Each structure stands twice: as structure tokens, then as C-alpha cells.
């Protein structure tokens, strides 16, 4: 059973086209991604998803590449193929010194991936939050502070983790197919 309908640009209402246009302008992409097209039927819903995405990923104090890696880590924990592939693609575009294999193994204890120590702490925190948010201890929050994250940055990190969880549920529930550029990354 197909669980979604895609609304291409030509068939979208003006409110949806506004969101598509802003995404295309900010991302430099040639077309909106599948996740966005799947929301295109409802201008209110797509606007809400886009504003949360833009606010959590494209704005704020944390480095964009760290945010993309965070979504990747959370998505891998949740088995969310679409989000894992999408955010691996984004992270690799932001840091071409990394490989897909680097991202997959980034939290392995023996990982040699060159990463600022604070980023490793943030990604370990994201992994723990995705596995058991209620089990995260004060010590794990303190580790973020000790790694140099301000209170504002910690809340931003939590917002990125929340964004990932929301999209993991949405894209996995609908079983959205991978965009061609994401599929090539995973299949490569």
C-alpha cells in the first residue's frame, strides 16, 4: 500500500509553492526533496515542518555540520533510512573530508574519524537521547557543559534531536522512498 502522495511544484497551491521556493533558494537544490513533496498537499503542515527544519538546522549557534551529523546519528539509532541517507548526504557535502563509512562508524570507540572532541560528546549525547531520553543523566548534561557547550547550545542540540525524532517517525511511517542523490550514497 502506498502511504503518501507527492505534490509536484506545478500542482502545488501558492502557500506550498512559497515553501518550495524558499527551500530551493536556501538549499540550492534543483527540486524539493521527497519529504517536502509528501507534505505539499497541505500548506499549513508543510510550512510548520519547514519552519522547524529551518530554525533547527539552518539557524542557531551550533555548526551546521554538527547538526547534520546529529540527525544522522539519531536516525541510524531509529532505523530511519530516509533521514539517515538525507543527512549523511548533507553532512558529506558540508565536510568533504568525511566518507559515508566515517559517519557510520563515528561513534565506534576505535573510530579514527577526525572530529573535534566537543562534537564527539554531542553525538554521544544524541545517541543516548535517541535510545533512552528518560535515562539521560545530569552527568551527561554536565559532559556537554564540560565540552564547552553553553546552555543555549545544549537546548539547540536538544531541538535538533527532537527534529530528527519527528522526521524519523514521519518518513519511516510513510515509508518514503529515497531521493536519487540519497539512494546513490547508500547504494555506493
TrEMBL record:
Q: Name one Pfam family in it.
A: CMD
Q: Which residues form the Carboxymuconolactone decarboxylase-like domain?
A: 48-93
> What InterPro entries has UniProt attached to this entry?
AhpD-like, CMD-like
One Gene Ontology MF term: peroxiredoxin activity
Ordered alphabetically, the record's keywords are:
Oxidoreductase, Peroxidase
> What's this protein's name?
Alkylhydroperoxidase family enzyme
List the lineage, top down: Bacteria, Pseudomonadati, Pseudomonadota, Betaproteobacteria, Burkholderiales
Amino acid at each position: 500500500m502506498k502511504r503518501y502522495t507527492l505534490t509536484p511544484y506545478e500542482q502545488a497551491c501558492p502557500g506550498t509553492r512559497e515553501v518550495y521556493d524558499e527551500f530551493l533558494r536556501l538549499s540550492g537544490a534543483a527540486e524539493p526533496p521527497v519529504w517536502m513533496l509528501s507534505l505539499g498537499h497541505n500548506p499549513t503542515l508543510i510550512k510548520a515542518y519547514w519552519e522547524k527544519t529551518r530554525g533547527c538546522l539552518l539557524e542557531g549557534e551550533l555548526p551546521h555540520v554538527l547538526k547534520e551529523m546529529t540527525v544522522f546519528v539519531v536516525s541510524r539509532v531509529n532505523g530511519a533510512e530516509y533521514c539517515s541517507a538525507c543527512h549523511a548526504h548533507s553532512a558529506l557535502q558540508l565536510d568533504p573530508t568525511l566518507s559515508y563509512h566515517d559517519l557510520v562508524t563515528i561513534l565506534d570507540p576505535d573510530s579514527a574519524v577526525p572530529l573535534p572532541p566537543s562534537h564527539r560528546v554531542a553525538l554521544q549525547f544524541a545517541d543516548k537521547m535517541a535510545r533512552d531520553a528518560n535515562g539521560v543523566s545530569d552527568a551527561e548534561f554536565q559532559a556537554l557543559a564540560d565540552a564547552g557547550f553553553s546552555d543555549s547550545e545544549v537546548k539547540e542540540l536538544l531541538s535538533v534531536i527532537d527534529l530528527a525524532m519527528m522526521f524519523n517517525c514521519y518518513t519511516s511511517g510513510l515509508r518514503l522512498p529515497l531521493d536519487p542523490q540519497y539512494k546513490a550514497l547508500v547504494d555506493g
